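1st attempt posting a full record on here, be nice pls
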Amino acid sequence: MTQAKLDQETLKKLKSDQLSQLKTQLGVKEDDKSLDYYFDDAIQAVLDYTNRTEMVTGLFVYAKKLATVYFNQQSNEGETQRTEGSVTRSFEVGIPLAIRNSLGRYRLGRFARL
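the predicted structure (as tokens):
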């Protein structure tokens, strides 16, 4: 599958649109910048996982999903499991499997020269 390279203007628009949708989805005020950091971290994690240096159109949706995970885990950083009474909660470390599976088709292979 070939992905067209996007110009900077289009990338900014896509990022802005997805960030706006994310803030609406999570009930965060538009002028609140706290979610911007989670979204930027999610974009970098997606780029690292896919071995890319620039975003392509389809990746923004997965960055938005990952930013939601980061936002929801903001008081649980560093924890992999928590037990409170008889209730045990486990947290996935890194990018959740459902998102990783979807990102698989965007991954670029790495090649080493001999």
